[in-house]
Amino acid sequence: MGNLNLILFISFALPMIMSFFVCKGRVRMALIFFFIGMGVCLFCGELSAVALAALPYEKQFFSCSIAPFFEEVFKALPILVFVFIFKPERRMLYECSALVGVGFAVLENAFILGSMSNTVSVLDALMRGLGAGIMHGLCTLAVGYGMSFVHTRRKLFSTGTVAMLAVATVYHATYNTIVQSVHLWMGVLLPVITLIPVLILMDKTEKNRKKREECASDSVRK
Prior knowledge:
- By secondary structure, the protein is mainly alpha-helical.
- The chain has helices at 4-22, 25-54, 59-65, 67-86, 90-115, 122-147, 154-179, 184-221.
């Protein structure tokens, strides 16, 4: 079958590149970061293959102990560049951060499910989508949250980014460990359960931000 990861990346990437010229504004930005996430997944997949061949570790140990660290680091790099060059507002930073993880998850899931050949089922796709799909998005969202302090509280930027990167790595490693154990469904449900309070918190934060802006506008008028 050749390099399945590269084949899938090309098949997804070409129509997306066309859409860059059609879409504008936030939609184009979303597509770009989704595309970047797939590119990071392709790079990490090749890096994992080289590292597995060079290191004296079994695949399960590697995926639970080493892969989560460098995957989260490489997913964080485009977000870091985005923060320093474009200085986005927090909401856009959160969205783009999550989309890097989602793009990563889409290519990874397609590769893993495609590698399973005739043994793959709808249930497998459901578990990969709910588990790894949400997990990768949550991890990059967490790192984006740490980076969001760079323009408001610079002292918190370094510590916040490193702390959230550590949280993302541990969370990723925990997920990989659980889904490769007898408690597979607990691992699949972990990201789903985590996503609910995160969405509630983000919604509450956005409402509070809008209230502060409205209060500031009212005081300026007065």
